[in-house]
Amino acid sequence: MTWQVYLSGEIHSNWREEIISACAEKGLAVTFTAPVLDHAASDEVGEAILGKEERPFWRDHKAAKINSIRIRKCIEEADLVVVRFGEKYKQWNAAFDAGYTAALGTPLITLHDESLIHPLKEVNGAGLASCRSTEEVVDILAYLLTQK
Questions:
Q1: CATH number of the domain enclosing 21
Q2: pLDDT tens across 96-135, in order?
Q3: Is residue 103 a contact partner of residue 77, using CB atoms and an 8 Å limit?
Q4: Lower Cβ count inside 10 Å, N or C end of the chain?
Q5: Strands (E), 85-123
């Protein structure tokens, strides 16, 4: 059996690559999807395709709507969603992805540092596991896929 895992959340570190490469090294039957990881492309897609906006709200609105097409499809097709919260930026979009995942009843794993345990207590409460490292995420995937 191959699992589809959506990797949501912060885009300013290599956490996705760590999970993907560790799963490949273990030979786990898992495929990964993610949002658009080019921050500029994600922010500019609305204006790039649908034209310039005078107000920042409408610029962001266009981009968010277009990006949500990919995000929703990936979350809806996922067997499991991992949401990473970094400490550098407030990731409201990651929290939204976690809530959407929970509302769909899709298994959710959160990934964040100790310092975010309290602020993310409700998000962690919706998850089925709350990890502090990419190794823990990989170990959970290995267990689920190999029963070891």
A1: 3.40.50.450
A2: 999 999 999 999 999 999 999 999 999 999 999 999 999 9
A3: no
A4: C
A5: 108-111
